Protein backbone atom coordinates (compact mmCIF):
# COMPACT_ATOMS: atom_id res chain seq x y z
CA UNK A 1 0.00 0.00 0.00
CA UNK A 2 1.02 3.59 -0.52
CA UNK A 3 1.71 5.78 2.51
CA UNK A 4 -1.64 7.54 2.10
CA UNK A 5 -3.48 4.23 1.77
CA UNK A 6 -1.77 2.80 4.85
CA UNK A 7 -2.72 5.85 6.91
CA UNK A 8 -6.35 5.64 5.77
CA UNK A 9 -6.40 1.90 6.46
CA UNK A 10 -5.07 2.41 10.00
CA UNK A 11 -7.55 5.17 10.79
CA UNK A 12 -10.57 3.28 9.44
CA UNK A 13 -9.50 0.05 11.16
CA UNK A 14 -9.20 1.94 14.44
CA UNK A 15 -12.71 3.36 14.01
CA UNK A 16 -14.12 -0.10 13.29
CA UNK A 17 -12.25 -1.68 16.21
CA UNK A 18 -13.52 0.97 18.62
CA UNK A 19 -17.10 0.80 17.38
CA UNK A 20 -17.17 4.26 15.81
CA UNK A 21 -18.07 2.59 12.52
CA UNK A 22 -20.91 0.15 13.13
CA UNK A 23 -21.58 -3.27 11.52
CA UNK A 24 -23.46 -2.79 8.27
CA UNK A 25 -22.45 0.87 7.96
CA UNK A 26 -21.66 1.89 4.38
CA UNK A 27 -18.24 3.35 3.59
CA UNK A 28 -18.58 5.77 0.70
CA UNK A 29 -15.38 5.91 -1.34
CA UNK A 30 -15.94 9.44 -2.63
CA UNK A 31 -16.95 10.75 0.79
CA UNK A 32 -13.91 9.17 2.42
CA UNK A 33 -11.62 10.68 -0.22
CA UNK A 34 -13.04 14.13 0.52
CA UNK A 35 -12.79 13.56 4.27
CA UNK A 36 -9.13 12.52 4.09
CA UNK A 37 -8.26 15.12 1.44
CA UNK A 38 -6.94 12.56 -1.04
CA UNK A 39 -7.90 11.06 -4.38
CA UNK A 40 -10.04 7.93 -4.52
CA UNK A 41 -7.04 5.71 -5.37
CA UNK A 42 -5.53 5.42 -1.85
CA UNK A 43 -9.04 5.08 -0.39
CA UNK A 44 -9.69 2.18 -2.76
CA UNK A 45 -6.39 0.57 -1.71
CA UNK A 46 -7.25 0.95 1.97
CA UNK A 47 -10.73 -0.53 1.49
CA UNK A 48 -9.28 -3.55 -0.32
CA UNK A 49 -6.91 -4.15 2.60
CA UNK A 50 -9.73 -3.80 5.13
CA UNK A 51 -11.71 -6.37 3.15
CA UNK A 52 -8.71 -8.72 3.07
CA UNK A 53 -8.55 -8.45 6.87
CA UNK A 54 -12.26 -9.22 7.17
CA UNK A 55 -13.15 -5.85 8.66
CA UNK A 56 -15.35 -4.80 5.74
CA UNK A 57 -17.03 -6.54 2.83
CA UNK A 58 -18.10 -5.47 -0.65
CA UNK A 59 -21.80 -6.06 -1.32
CA UNK A 60 -23.69 -5.80 -4.63
CA UNK A 61 -25.36 -2.40 -5.11
CA UNK A 62 -24.08 -1.23 -1.71
CA UNK A 63 -20.33 -1.21 -2.08
CA UNK A 64 -18.11 -1.34 1.00
CA UNK A 65 -19.82 -1.92 4.35
CA UNK A 66 -18.49 -2.79 7.80
CA UNK A 67 -18.67 -6.57 8.22
CA UNK A 68 -21.62 -8.00 10.10
CA UNK A 69 -20.96 -11.23 11.99
CA UNK A 70 -23.61 -13.50 13.45
CA UNK A 71 -23.27 -14.76 17.02
CA UNK A 72 -22.61 -18.28 15.71
CA UNK A 73 -19.79 -16.97 13.50
CA UNK A 74 -18.48 -14.92 16.40
CA UNK A 75 -18.45 -17.99 18.67
CA UNK A 76 -16.46 -19.90 16.04
CA UNK A 77 -13.95 -17.06 15.70
CA UNK A 78 -13.51 -16.67 19.45
CA UNK A 79 -12.93 -20.41 19.80
CA UNK A 80 -10.37 -20.31 16.99
CA UNK A 81 -8.62 -17.39 18.65
CA UNK A 82 -8.45 -19.28 21.95
CA UNK A 83 -6.73 -22.22 20.27
CA UNK A 84 -4.39 -20.20 18.06
CA UNK A 85 -3.20 -17.91 20.84
CA UNK A 86 -2.76 -20.89 23.16
CA UNK A 87 -0.60 -22.54 20.49
CA UNK A 88 1.44 -19.34 20.23
CA UNK A 89 1.96 -19.38 24.00
CA UNK A 90 3.06 -23.02 23.85
CA UNK A 91 5.59 -22.27 21.11
CA UNK A 92 6.73 -19.08 22.85
CA UNK A 93 7.62 -21.13 25.93
CA UNK A 94 9.92 -23.20 23.73
CA UNK A 95 11.29 -20.58 21.35
CA UNK A 96 11.42 -17.21 23.12
CA UNK A 97 14.96 -16.00 23.69
CA UNK A 98 16.19 -14.44 26.92
CA UNK A 99 15.57 -10.88 25.73
CA UNK A 100 11.99 -11.64 24.71
CA UNK A 101 11.31 -13.30 28.06
CA UNK A 102 12.75 -10.27 29.84
CA UNK A 103 10.49 -7.96 27.81
CA UNK A 104 7.49 -10.14 28.71
CA UNK A 105 8.36 -9.85 32.40
CA UNK A 106 8.72 -6.07 32.04
CA UNK A 107 5.28 -5.81 30.42
CA UNK A 108 3.82 -7.88 33.24
CA UNK A 109 5.29 -5.45 35.80
CA UNK A 110 4.01 -2.44 33.84
CA UNK A 111 0.57 -4.04 33.78
CA UNK A 112 0.77 -4.55 37.53
CA UNK A 113 1.37 -0.83 38.06
CA UNK A 114 -1.46 0.16 35.69
CA UNK A 115 -3.88 -2.26 37.38
CA UNK A 116 -2.92 -0.94 40.82
CA UNK A 117 -3.70 2.60 39.63
CA UNK A 118 -6.94 1.47 38.01
CA UNK A 119 -5.68 3.02 34.77
CA UNK A 120 -7.71 1.15 32.13
CA UNK A 121 -6.27 3.09 29.18
CA UNK A 122 -2.68 2.31 30.13
CA UNK A 123 -3.54 -1.30 30.96
CA UNK A 124 -5.27 -1.77 27.59
CA UNK A 125 -2.16 -0.58 25.73
CA UNK A 126 0.13 -2.81 27.81
CA UNK A 127 -2.26 -5.72 27.35
CA UNK A 128 -2.00 -5.40 23.57
CA UNK A 129 1.80 -5.32 23.74
CA UNK A 130 1.81 -8.39 26.01
CA UNK A 131 -0.27 -10.48 23.61
CA UNK A 132 1.57 -9.18 20.54
CA UNK A 133 4.91 -10.17 22.07
CA UNK A 134 3.68 -13.71 22.69
CA UNK A 135 2.56 -13.93 19.06
CA UNK A 136 5.98 -12.81 17.84
CA UNK A 137 7.71 -14.99 20.43
CA UNK A 138 6.18 -18.11 18.90
CA UNK A 139 8.55 -17.52 15.95
CA UNK A 140 5.94 -18.93 13.58
CA UNK A 141 4.85 -16.31 11.06
CA UNK A 142 1.75 -18.24 9.99
CA UNK A 143 0.36 -18.61 13.51
CA UNK A 144 1.35 -15.07 14.48
CA UNK A 145 -0.43 -13.70 11.40
CA UNK A 146 -3.59 -15.68 12.13
CA UNK A 147 -3.52 -14.54 15.74
CA UNK A 148 -3.04 -10.89 14.76
CA UNK A 149 -5.83 -10.97 12.18
CA UNK A 150 -8.29 -12.62 14.57
CA UNK A 151 -7.49 -10.20 17.38
CA UNK A 152 -8.02 -7.29 14.97
CA UNK A 153 -11.37 -8.64 13.74
CA UNK A 154 -12.57 -9.44 17.26
CA UNK A 155 -11.38 -6.28 18.99
CA UNK A 156 -14.67 -4.43 18.56
CA UNK A 157 -16.62 -7.36 20.00
CA UNK A 158 -14.34 -7.52 23.03
CA UNK A 159 -15.21 -3.90 23.64
CA UNK A 160 -18.82 -4.91 24.18
CA UNK A 161 -17.61 -5.86 27.66
CA UNK A 162 -18.42 -3.34 30.40
CA UNK A 163 -15.55 -1.20 31.61
CA UNK A 164 -13.30 -3.05 33.98
CA UNK A 165 -13.74 -2.64 37.65
CA UNK A 166 -10.68 -3.16 39.82
CA UNK A 167 -11.40 -6.87 40.26
CA UNK A 168 -11.50 -7.49 36.51
CA UNK A 169 -8.26 -5.62 35.92
CA UNK A 170 -6.55 -7.62 38.64
CA UNK A 171 -7.99 -10.90 37.35
CA UNK A 172 -6.67 -10.14 33.88
CA UNK A 173 -3.29 -9.28 35.35
CA UNK A 174 -3.25 -12.47 37.43
CA UNK A 175 -3.91 -14.44 34.23
CA UNK A 176 -1.04 -12.64 32.52
CA UNK A 177 1.20 -13.58 35.42
CA UNK A 178 0.36 -17.26 35.02
CA UNK A 179 1.01 -17.07 31.28
CA UNK A 180 4.28 -15.18 31.76
CA UNK A 181 5.59 -17.60 34.39
CA UNK A 182 4.79 -20.65 32.26
CA UNK A 183 6.56 -19.15 29.23
CA UNK A 184 9.61 -18.02 31.21
CA UNK A 185 9.81 -21.45 32.87
CA UNK A 186 9.72 -23.15 29.47
CA UNK A 187 6.59 -25.14 30.34
CA UNK A 188 4.69 -25.55 27.04
CA UNK A 189 1.65 -27.41 28.39
CA UNK A 190 1.09 -24.94 31.22
CA UNK A 191 1.53 -22.01 28.81
CA UNK A 192 -1.05 -23.51 26.46
CA UNK A 193 -3.56 -24.24 29.22
CA UNK A 194 -3.41 -20.92 31.07
CA UNK A 195 -3.56 -18.89 27.85
CA UNK A 196 -6.52 -20.86 26.56
CA UNK A 197 -8.36 -20.54 29.88
CA UNK A 198 -7.63 -16.81 29.92
CA UNK A 199 -9.14 -16.22 26.48
CA UNK A 200 -11.99 -18.70 26.98
CA UNK A 201 -13.13 -16.81 30.07
CA UNK A 202 -13.28 -13.57 28.10
CA UNK A 203 -15.00 -15.25 25.13
CA UNK A 204 -17.72 -16.65 27.37
CA UNK A 205 -18.32 -13.22 28.88
CA UNK A 206 -18.52 -11.52 25.47
CA UNK A 207 -20.97 -14.07 24.07
CA UNK A 208 -23.16 -13.97 27.15
CA UNK A 209 -23.37 -10.19 27.04
CA UNK A 210 -24.01 -9.99 23.29
CA UNK A 211 -26.72 -12.66 23.42
CA UNK A 212 -28.45 -10.65 26.14
CA UNK A 213 -28.14 -7.49 24.06
CA UNK A 214 -29.45 -9.25 20.97
CA UNK A 215 -32.53 -10.33 22.91
CA UNK A 216 -33.04 -6.70 23.88
CA UNK A 217 -32.55 -5.61 20.23
CA UNK A 218 -29.42 -3.72 21.24
CA UNK A 219 -26.42 -3.22 18.98
CA UNK A 220 -23.56 -5.70 19.54
CA UNK A 221 -20.82 -3.10 19.50
CA UNK A 222 -19.97 -0.72 22.31
CA UNK A 223 -17.23 1.83 22.76
CA UNK A 224 -16.07 0.52 26.11
CA UNK A 225 -12.66 -1.03 26.64
CA UNK A 226 -12.23 -4.70 27.42
CA UNK A 227 -9.12 -6.40 28.70
CA UNK A 228 -7.82 -9.75 27.50
From TrEMBL:
Q: For the HTH gntR-type domain, which residue ranges apply?
A: 2-69
**Quick check: keyword Transport in the entry?**
no
Protein known as: GntR family transcriptional regulator
Q: Which GO terms describe its molecular function?
A: DNA binding; DNA-binding transcription factor activity
Superkingdom is: Bacteria
Q: Which organism is it from?
A: Gluconacetobacter sacchari
User: Which UniProt keyword terms apply here?
Assistant: DNA-binding, Transcription, Transcription regulation
The cross-references to Gene3D superfamilies, in alphabetical order and at most eight, read:
GntR ligand-binding domain-like, Winged helix-like DNA-binding domain superfamily/Winged helix DNA-binding domain
Q: Which SMART domains match?
A: FCD, HTH_GNTR
Pfam families attached to this UniProt entry: FCD, GntR
Amino acid sequence: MSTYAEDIYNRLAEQIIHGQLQPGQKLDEQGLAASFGVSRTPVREALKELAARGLIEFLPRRGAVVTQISLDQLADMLDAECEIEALCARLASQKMNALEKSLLQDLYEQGKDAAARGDRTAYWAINQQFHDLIGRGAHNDTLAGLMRDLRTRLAAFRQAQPQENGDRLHKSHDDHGAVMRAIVAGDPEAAYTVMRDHNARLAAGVLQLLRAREQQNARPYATLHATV
